């Protein structure tokens, strides 16, 4: 089981690929995602033990140099984050919906982890910057009070950094909305 998650965003696709290769060579980590994102950026997500992930992220940041946009290590990542990154979470029972829009892919993953740790919610999806102009967003569900608490926690922790674009809570979303959003 992955205990931590490392994320790095680059403003160069070529440099992102090179840095990701060096990260994998530097430490015993698992590559979860490594892909170009809009607008011409590259993101890599790795998982593993905290020490290995920190080492790999440091190497990736150093290799990326001036092309590194953002990086972060979540030491004790919540287990719901991994299926949300691949949009494989169960969406059979949507009570209310929370959507947190962020300025970057890295901030989206951070917001997802913050939300699921802050309240009793289900993390449905963390969408990372594909077709979003470099932004990302998180979709959560649960009881309305829990969703509000999770969204508020994200706003409290990320608003001062300028990473939150917008956040909404929708009580009892229309059934036709869910399959189109997720």
TrEMBL record:
Coiled coil: none
Location in or out of the cell: Bacterial microcompartment
GO cellular component, one term: bacterial microcompartment
Domain BMC as annotated: residue spans: 4-86, 96-182
Transmembrane segments: none
Keyword annotations from UniProtKB, A to Z: Bacterial microcompartment
InterPro entries named among the record's database cross-references: BMC_dom, BMC_shell, CcmK-like_sf, CcmK/CsoS1_BMC, Micro_shell_prot_PduT
PROSITE patterns recorded: BMC_2 (PS51930)
Similarity annotation: Belongs to the bacterial microcompartments protein family.
Protein name as annotated: Carboxysome shell and ethanolamine utilization microcompartment protein CcmL/EutN
The species this protein was found in: Geosporobacter subterraneus DSM 17957
